[in-house]
Amino acid sequence: MLLDNVTFISYIGGSILFSALSLITLYLVSRQQLTLSTLIAMLLSAVWCGVLAVDSLHPELSVRQLLLLETMRTGAWISAMLQQLRFYNHSGVHRGPFLILNCLWVLCGFLFVLLFPLLLPDSDQMLYVWGSLLLSILGVVAVEQLFRNSAQYRISKFLSIGLAAQFLYDLYLFSHAALFGVLDAELWQARGAVSGSVAIFLAIGMLGVTGRAAPQPTRVAISRPVAFYTTSLTTAGFFLALMAAGGYYIKLYGGNWGTVIQITVITSSLVAIAIVFLSDVTRTKLSVFIDKHFFVHKYDYRSQWLNLIHHLSASSGGSGQDIHHRAIQAVASTFKCPGGMLWLNNRFGKLIPVAVMNMKVDSMDFEEPAESPFCRVLREEEWVFSPHAPHDHELGTHNEMLPHWITRIPGVWLIIPLLVDHELIGFLVLAAPTQESPLTWEDLDLLKTVGREVAVYLSRNEAAEMLAQSKQFDAYNKLTAFIMHDLKNLIAQQALVVENAAKHKENPAFIDDMIRTIDNSVQRMSNLLKKLQQTQPTSGRSLPLKNVVINSVKKCQDRVPRPSLRILSDSLKVVADEDNLEMIITHIIKNAQEATAADGYVDITLRNDSGYALIEVEDNGSGMDADFVKNRLFRPFDTTKSGKGMGIGVYQTREFIRNLGGDVTVKSEPGIGTTFTIYIPVEAQAKAVS
User: Fold this and answer.
1) Domain that holds residue 677
2) FRET partner for 560 with CA separation of 20 to 30 A, picked from 136, 385, 427, 546?
3) For residues 207 and 117, what is the distance between their CA atoms, to the nearest angstrom?
C-alpha cells in the first residue's frame, strides 16, 4: 500500500470528526433519540480511523489485525442500525433480518480472523480484500433494512444516507482491488476523507433534531419495486462475490488448471444468476417474500374483518335461505363480486347447491360427490380454483379436476373451499368482478381466511338449528312424559273404583261418589287430550288457594298417616290452572305419606309471606341426604320407587310452579324428615310476572 502524509491526514481527520460526532451522539442518547449501540459504533469508527492513520506512518498491522478492525467497525454499525430500527419501530419490526445480519457479521469475523488465516498466509492481502468486500455487502444490506423500515424519521434518513455512502465506497474500493488483484493507493487514501465527510453529514442531520423531544416523521418512503430490485441485486452481488472469491482461490491453488476452473466457476455463477432471475416463478416467490415480510399489506384487515362481521351478523328473518345469502354476500362484498353460489354438504355424501345470488343458472342440480377429486383437492390442499386460468399458470394447476357442470354456470371467477378444521362443509363460487385484477398471494390468503370464517358461521348456524329442533323434540317429549304421569294417576283412580265396586255396588253413596270420580277423570283426560293436540293452550285464572289445598288434602285422606291442614291466610288468591295446581299439591302430599310410617305425621300449612303464598308440606319420614336433594331429586326420569314411578313428579311440580313465577325448595335430613315449601306469587304479583 502507498503510505504517506496524505493518507495520515485523511484518516486522522476522519478520526477527529467521528470523535466530535460521538459527543453529539452521546447527547442524543441521553435524550433517548439514539441508542447506545450507535454511540459505540461512532467511537469504534473514530478508533478505526485513528489506528489506520498511525499505521500509514509506521505500517505494522497484519492482515489478521486489519480484518479484526474491519469486522469490529462494520459489525458495530450493523448492530447499531438494527438496534436503531427496533427502537423506532418499538420492537415491531421482523426479527428475521435482525438475527440473520448479526449472525452473518459474527460468522464473518470468526472466519476472517480465526479460520482463514490458519489456512492462508498471513501476508495474503487478498484475504483482507475479500473479507472487507463481504463485510461491505452486509453493511449495505443493513442500511437497506434501516431505510426501508424507518425512513420516515429524520435521524434515520440521514444515518441511512451517510452509511450507505460509506459502505458503497468500501464496496467500490474492494471490488476494484478484487478485480485488479491489488488495493488502489489513491482510493485507499480517499477512504479516510470519505469517512470524515460521512461524519460531517451525520452531524448536520443530528444537529437538526437536538432541540426536539422525539423523532420527527417525514414523508419519505420506498416503493415495492425499488425494494424488490434492491434486494435482488444485493442477493446477486453477494452470490457473485462468493463465487468470485471461490474462483480466486481456485486460481491461486489450482495449478495449471486454476485459470480454466476460475473462469468456468464465474461464468457458471453468472448463468445461474441469469436463469434464476429470468424465471417468473423465482421472481414471483421473491416478490411474495418481500411483500410478506417487509411491507404494509395490500388490505386493511381491520376494515375487511369488520365488513365481514357486519354482513354475517346482519339481522334477517332467520331462515336458512337468509343465512346462506348472507354468507354469499359477505364474501362477494369483500372481493367486489356481483354474486355467487353456495354448495353445502348434505351429510349423505354429496355437496348440493343451496343458494344463488345474482348469477344466471338454468338449474340447481349441480351435485358433487364429497369424495370426488375436485372435493379432495379443495379439502386436502385448501385450493382456490380459477377455472379460466391457463393450465401453465399456478392457479390453473388442478383445473383438470373441475367438475363438468362448471361450464354450465356463466361468469365463474373463483371457487373457494369452506373448511372447518380439515372438514369440507361446502364451497363457494364467486362471479367475476367488474374490474378483475391479477391475484396475488395476499388475495389468496384473504380468500382462504374468509372462507374458513364463513364455514364456521354456516356450521354454527346449522348446529344452532339442530339444537332448536332438539329442544322442540325435548319439549314434546316432556309434554308426553307429563301426560303419561297424569294418566298413570287417573288409571290408579279408576282402578280403585273398580276394586271397590264389587264390595259397595249396593251402597247409593258409593255409586254417587263413583259417578263423581268418573266425571272428574273424564274432565281431566279431556284437558290432557286438548294439551296434547295443542288446540287449547293452558291458561290460568284467579283461584282461591285455600279451596285448592283443601281439595288436595281431601284426596289424600284415604292414606296413612292422614294429613293435617293449617290455614293461616284464607284469602290468598293465585293465577294458575286449577287442575294442574291441585294435582301437584296432591302429588307432594302423597309422596310425603309414602315416605312416612303409619304412626308419623304429615302437616300442611298455608300462609302468606311477603307477597307469596307458601304451602309447606312437612313430614317426619325417612328423609333424604343433601347429595340426593341436590343432584337427583329434581332430575327427570330418576326415581327411587322401583317399578312404581316415572321419576318426573317432583320435576313437573317445580317446572309448573316456576312457570307461575314461584319456586320449590326442599329441606331434608335422613331419619328426621322432609319439608317441601311451594312459593306461589299472589294474584297481584302473578299478573306482574305474566
Assistant:
1) 541-689
2) 546
3) 43
